């Protein structure tokens, strides 16, 4: 797995979108046995928690310190050295529990701890372990489950610690030696002695259980309550676990009182009892850990819901500037600089976007090279000189958190990032899951890239201006819906609008009234040869200045590459500089169509809609096609296959005795109309990619006859495109 480039940020796994449903349906195998069920009512009856809150974590720190010191001191067998650093280590470990408010907690619980200690030390020898356990539970009825366990453990730790103090100091301290003689404490050197193993294992399990129970109590009530499924289904398990942990305390106390106080040793039966309790405790602890994990997932999902709702709220609120919304969306914390400018390799804070129009480029890691080329050209033009184009672009890569981040993903990310001259997120892992959900659910991102436009105050003025950018480029600045509509109101259908200077020569050709431009496409090289030969022959004969430009075919990258090579080598016509320009030409036309559809236009009432539909239908077919116009005139003649070739040939024959006849386009149009009757057979296909939120209607009328077109589903895989 690739190393996360930002160690402060983990790449979390995706949780269920509705974790509350997932948690309620997830089964955690209960470790509550049939016998446990029988005593569960007794345990619950003893519990009368009166909402008093006791922070027992500092007490558990002291308990752990007692257990650890006894163990490490004997392992080292260096009593004096251990005593020398006692003060410093004690203060570092448990100093907080012996001073301030936490000391008050210990003072308040001291008497209770002593009562519990008396309960299991006075009654455990030969007594009923269950009865002693229930007596302690009754005694601690008003406390929370974790407090019950910690108080019981504290009582045991006192007895355990006193025993080891006598054992450890008896060689060097006369008082300890005298006490050891009266108590007949055995000389035990080392917890590695086999008789200590079961007790040590049990102690570890009890401490682990106490920690897990404390974690349950510390779960944030803001995000999870006792009525929520993860906690509601854990109540019985917590009660049973508390019972068995206190019962383990009773058994451990019996071990101390009956064996180490009268010089005895642990019998095989007693050792087996302790081992059984440790095994039982381990099973209960593992079950608690599973339930805790589900609770934490539930809490995280609630936090993400809160973050998502906050984003939705912010996106609807007027803001003083764009900082609050952008920081909440991109990266809310201040611990790192989340943006990077690749050209300078500088890490930057989001503040560099303050007060600016911001375009958020949102995509996954799949190839978006064509879009990047268009955006790069536009962005670099905007940065030249004083042109009033004050905007910034920020790339937000959206990655599925369910996948494992690999070296291949890192490579793909870096390759895309290095192609961008604008700001990008330093790493995809910085984008919060709530932000990804917002981007998908509110802005409609699914697979295809989108560009969200925000004004200088952080208000979203358009959820996707990519179509706007493809059609108008920087003319669409400041990338608002109002500006877009203004540009459309001023626009008419003409050759200048269609070609949009995709060749350097186009502006010159467009400005020359006597120059005709013929765009043609398709992937049949035989037809292309015949068409270009016919056009050149008759235009030359008649003195018509004609420029032929091959614009390729959409979604046929490799085929178009080969055809461009043939056209250039045989000098059949002009071609677009590369296949990326071919992509831009066709995608721009698609964007026009999407805009018209989204705004309720149709072929009967909108000329641009009708003409764009017609050209895209040509591209969707199997035949070649031609599209002829001149300058900024709205008159454009178009045809496909043999029809346009035959029409040009007929025009040539009609005009043999005239050079440069007037009305070339009108005459050619008349000829084509006589060849193609409205009632004649035609088969037009319109192939459009699925674009989320594009507003494509269920009914599309044919550009030729006006009848509704049939709708089919097309699933296509074009490797290499």
UniProtKB/TrEMBL annotation:
Any idea where the Sieve element occlusion C-terminal domain is? 483-719
| Alphabetized InterPro entries for the sequence | SEO_C, SEO_N, SEOA
Q: Which residues form the Sieve element occlusion N-terminal domain?
A: 35-318
Pfam families the record matches:
SEO_C, SEO_N
One GO term (biological process):
phloem development
Q: What is this protein called?
A: Sieve element occlusion N-terminal domain-containing protein
The scientific name of the source species is Opuntia streptacantha (Prickly pear cactus)
Question: What does UniProt list as this organism's lineage?
Answer: Eukaryota, Viridiplantae, Streptophyta, Embryophyta, Tracheophyta
